[in-house]
Amino acid sequence: MAVPDPATLDSVAAHAGVSRQTVSNVLRHPDRVAAGTRERVLTAIRETRYRPSLPARQLATRRAHAIAVRAERTQDGISGLVLDAFYHGLAEAGQDNGLRVLLYAQPADEAAEVALIDELVHTGAADAVVLTATSAADERPAHLRESGTTFCAFGRPWGHDDEPHDWVDVDGAVGTGLAVRHLLDRGHRRIAYLGWPEDGADPSTGTDRRRGWLEAVGAASLDGPPVEARSLNQAAAAEVAVAALLARADAPDAIVCASDTLALGAHRAALAAARSARPATVVGFDATPVAAALGLASVAQPIDQAAHLCIDLLTGRFEAPDRPAQGLLVAPVLHLPS
Amino acid sequence: MAVPDPATLDSVAAHAGVSRQTVSNVLRHPDRVAAGTRERVLTAIRETRYRPSLPARQLATRRAHAIAVRAERTQDGISGLVLDAFYHGLAEAGQDNGLRVLLYAQPADEAAEVALIDELVHTGAADAVVLTATSAADERPAHLRESGTTFCAFGRPWGHDDEPHDWVDVDGAVGTGLAVRHLLDRGHRRIAYLGWPEDGADPSTGTDRRRGWLEAVGAASLDGPPVEARSLNQAAAAEVAVAALLARADAPDAIVCASDTLALGAHRAALAAARSARPATVVGFDATPVAAALGLASVAQPIDQAAHLCIDLLTGRFEAPDRPAQGLLVAPVLHLPS
DNA sequence: GCTCCAAGTTTGAGCGCTCAAACCACCCTA
DNA sequence: TAGGGTGGTTTGAGCGCTCAAACTTGGAGC
Fold first, then answer.
1. Hey, which residues 43-72 in chain B have their CB within 8 Å of chain A?
2. How many CB atoms are located within 10 Å of the residue A319 CB?
3. B215 to chain A, minimum CA–CA distance in Å?
4. Would you say the C-alpha torsion A237, A240, A241, A246 has a positive or negative sign?
5. What's the CATH code, domain B9-52?
6. Is the pLDDT at A130 greater than 60, yes or no?
7. Distance between CA atoms of B313 and B319, rounded to whole angstroms?
8. A83: distance to nearest CA of chain B, Å?
9. Hey, are the CB atoms on B76 and A125 less than 8 Å from each other?
10. Is residue B3 very low, low, confident or very high in pLDDT (cuts 50, 70, 90)?
């Protein structure tokens, strides 16, 4: 069976007995069309199964109606699901705003990535980019601003407040604060922190999470001084670090961790150390299925919300390219074991 | 500073003193252009910083040069497909073949998804789709074939061999077979299987993995008959199931699991059961960081390779739309604990 | 010296849409 | 009754590319 030629603006117009432009107006500026005409055209659209051609629209408007986001090279995995959720959120929010989401493979380094983004934007494949996994040493934002590329970062401009750009981030300090208060409520009095090696130096996600713990613990005027340990983001390393912590005289009875990977290690160390007594309670970060499987509480990032806000910032900027840069912080929630 | 108008085919042509079409040929059909001219044009392209306009090309060729893939709604389970790796593989392989990867948010149900895919294809946003998470009851392939949409599934057409389509899948049976042989090599003689409740009924991923275990165990002529247990894909449920298994008179000394989630539960049960003796060895599936953290061997799916093959099948089909459907199985490998 | 051919190059047309400007009734005002 | 509006609609032009067909050459062949 022969498939009929797909309908175009012209064929729909002929079908409805109006002009091309009127059909276009019905779709893009309904208010410019008289109600009667509009109905007639809508019927024609339905009858002809008309679908607007995206490329034609892109060519005429010089807008791609798409944003690009990086597909990470395989990463440590436990928190890989977080990224999946972010992709879903972007795609969903994008669809609601007429934006498609384009994936690009993470290139070898930041320079190559900036070049690739430039390519995507200048060939008309995307209008803007969502930057993920930003850090203090990140060169991408500066380059993108320079080349005039519209973008929104998921992650704060750590230490680059002088070069403002749009960003959305999760307030890690609030998250660890929640964890501490949860533990306090349950009677814990020696609440330690297990973070990453670099925490406390340059501003970073780690510093932020640590600060939340420190402030919450400080505000509670507990027994001794706050205790902490650091470990690479690997369960085995974390297990070793926490074992040492638990062997100390002032061993903690609870541990707030910077990630679920660390929490997994901490959990094992706690179990091992507590042959007889009650094991130290561990709280994780990211609320991955691992934490749920182990019965650990964990701080959940509202990834979906963050993704929606990125899209909001971007669409806002499309409409007002010169408005000042905005940063948005969203609060995490604590997921308790069921 | 004023940004110069972006170069077009015409402006490059003028710059090089040739015609529009010659510039186009230099890019798309270099062999049709004399070497000297080609050099001159390439120089002009460089000097003018020319970037071809994707939308214009799409409009003229009626091809989107893009494929769509679904962004999953947040899923649970430690394992399952960690999609990031798949996305990255698709994006990478796509870039090598001039295909962009478009993400669409998972709709409420399969009917809505088919409608959305139809929309993407007919508006010229994508040329084809990669279907993920296929199952025996999946209605999507049938609908897509019917509407003539090009697609490739990541996952076999379980029980629908009469309606062939392009697919790529990981050979789960080979994976569990590897696990069994690994255990045999290490002296285990009573190797059980921990699968999902539905395994063995309709053909499915679970059946496939179970079969690999059964065949490998059968081929080894071991002590007693093969022992197995089933559990929902949750660590807690798996722990209960395995505890029962280990309490039996013919308790196994090793357990091959259908997922790392199950392996986590099995591991905990094994530790608990073995107060004194050596605990049963557990092997997982998917090689997630959890397995690595617990020191368990686990079957790793070559996700990246699978993604590349999906792109290969798709590009092949673009060139020969009528070639018969192809199915490709890729072999997993066993990741040993380090 | 003429035709014929292939390699190389140019021209014309069109993909389906949106913008801006032009047009057209028709009503209102002076 | 002529002179403005004002919603509603149409027209013309063009976005930047590719396809197919038409056009140039400089040999090779006779």
1. 51-56, 58-59, 64, 66, 71-72
2. 7
3. 31
4. positive
5. 1.10.260.40
6. yes
7. 10
8. 7
9. no
10. low
The CATH 3.40.50.2300 portion of chain A extends over: 66-170+303-329, 172-300
Extract the tokens encoding A20. 């091309």
Q: Does nucleic acid strand C have an atom less than 7 angstroms from the CB of B33?
A: yes
Q: Name the CATH code of domain B66-170+303-329 (choices 3.40.50.1240, 3.40.50.2300, 3.30.365.10, 3.10.450.50).
A: 3.40.50.2300
Report the distance separating Cα A67 and Cα A52, nearest Å: 20
Could you check: is the Cβ of residue A54 within 7 Å of any atom of nucleic acid strand C?
no
Nucleotides on chain D that have an atom closer than 7 A to a protein CB are 7-12, 14-21
Rounded distance in angstroms from the CA atom of residue B26 to the C1' atom of nucleotide C14: 22
Establish if A81 touches chain B: CB-CB under 8 angstroms: yes
pLDDT single digits (tens) A7-21? 999 999 999 999 999
Q: Collapse the DSSP code of A328 into the 3-class scheme (helix H, G, I; strand E, B; otherwise coil) and give the result.
A: strand
Q: Where in chain B is the domain with CATH 1.10.260.40?
A: 9-52
Query: Which of A72-86, A142-156, A324-338, B202-216 bottoms out in mean pLDDT, i.e. has the lowest?
Result: A72-86
Mean pLDDT in residue range A116-143? 95
pLDDT over threshold 90, residue A223: no
The residue type of B186 is R
**Collapsing DSSP states into helix, strand and coil, what is residue A68?**
strand
Residue B50, both tokens:
């020319």
Tell me the per-residue pLDDT of B117-140, one tens digit each, with 9 for 90 and over.
Answer: 999 999 999 999 999 988 888 999
Question: Chain B within 8 Å of A112 (Cβ-Cβ)?
Answer: no
Is residue B176 very low, low, confident or very high in pLDDT (cuts 50, 70, 90)? very high
Domain A172-300 has CATH 3.40.50.2300: yes
Average pLDDT over residues A64-78: 84
